Amino acid sequence: MRPGLDPTLYLVTDTALSRPRTVADVVRAAVAGGVTTVQVRDKDASRRELYELTLAVRDALAGAPGVALFVNDAVDVALLAGADGVHIGQDDLPPAEVRALLGPDRLLGLSAGTTAEMAATLALPPGTVDVVGIGPVWATPTKPDAGTGLGPGGVAALAARARAAGLRTVAIGGIDAARATSVTGVDGVCVVSAICAAPDPEAAARALRSAVGTAVAR
Amino acid sequence: MRPGLDPTLYLVTDTALSRPRTVADVVRAAVAGGVTTVQVRDKDASRRELYELTLAVRDALAGAPGVALFVNDAVDVALLAGADGVHIGQDDLPPAEVRALLGPDRLLGLSAGTTAEMAATLALPPGTVDVVGIGPVWATPTKPDAGTGLGPGGVAALAARARAAGLRTVAIGGIDAARATSVTGVDGVCVVSAICAAPDPEAAARALRSAVGTAVAR
């Protein structure tokens, strides 16, 4: 059976921004503050480092059974570390192939930032993808190549198509607690620096969760 | 059943050194010249690019059924692309975990360049690893972080331990046709630039194969 997924407040980890704290420390605090889903992402890590990082985050989530754990890109690491799923971008392995490797009992997230990418996502066999990451909402320093931003209206338009097809949606890119209130039409918001770079990740998560609760369509 | 493996002349691909030719073109020529095993390696490629590169090389090997195809590091790519095996370094996923993901019917190669790394390799459960890459024999520009070189004597000493345990061995690092004749005590030699950067990869492979044939213990 596929694990449950509550994407209301979805944290994507950033190892450099988390320093001097460990990623696991930030995750633990963020979950205490209301984060509902965690994705381990570290494009600079070796496969071994990403595996060990994922194990550490999995341990940090042991007391939070409802929080799904995704690994960015590395299907092998997700399988070995016992994560709940994988999140892939448009440059990663093809979604249908990733689903074949994952089997039916894990979650698959996919990024889609254009009408064409959303159409390709919706053309996949049902059950391939569980959640679509839509963005960037705004330009973001953690992904400088991700473009200038769709804006909340652009995100809501793409999300409506995915939701009509039964997929969950999260908005990503440049979201903080102030901006989160203007994001609508999605099942949740993703943040990176708004939590990983915060002096108090738990307080930052709490503020975000409160903002999301008043804004996001559930 | 695990695929056959003839590591006599083992080509590790380098996308940049192969240009303006494609890697698949270089592989096709190299196999015509006598290469017996191919490993696809591209540390700069996205997971998707590595997958597509591996498919292209697999197609190039379609007429050479005895040539085993390895993928460097990415177990997921190897599984999806139908490669014969994976080669991992000391910074990649742990060997026992990789074997668990690969299952019994694929090959696993592991790099070991020190006595301690060889001891760890030999302490793995039997059947985990099939072939050990020992090096660098000499300092090599394609892996500037790999150290100053074990020399042929150092390689032979490490290889003897692996061979006593029933593992196949290949020497790697700075090997060209002239130097290949001084490499002994292994089952084969690995090359990167000696073929990928050669003006005529088929001729380069033929010269290497001839040199290896006179030197390597089989």
Key terms for this structure?
eight-stranded parallel β-barrel, TIM Barrel, thiamine biosynthesis (chains A, B), 16% strand, 218 residues, thiamine-phosphate diphosphorylase activity (chains A, B), metal-binding (chains A, B), alpha/beta, homodimer, 10 helices
Describe the structure.
Two copies of one chain form a homodimer. In chain A, strands 1-2-3-4-5-6-7-8 form an eight-stranded parallel β-barrel, surrounded by seven helices. Chain A has one domain: Aldolase class I (TIM Barrel). In chain A, helix 2 packs parallel to helix 3, helix 2 packs across helix 10 and helix 3 crosses helix 4. The first copy, chain A, has 218 residues and is of the alpha/beta class. The mean pLDDT of chain A is 93. The first copy, chain A, is globular, with a radius of gyration of 16 Å. Chain A is built from ten helices and eight strands. In chain A, strand 4, helix 5 and strand 5 form a beta-alpha-beta unit. Chains A and B meet through helix 3, helix 4 and helix 5 of A and helix 3, helix 4 and helix 5 of B.
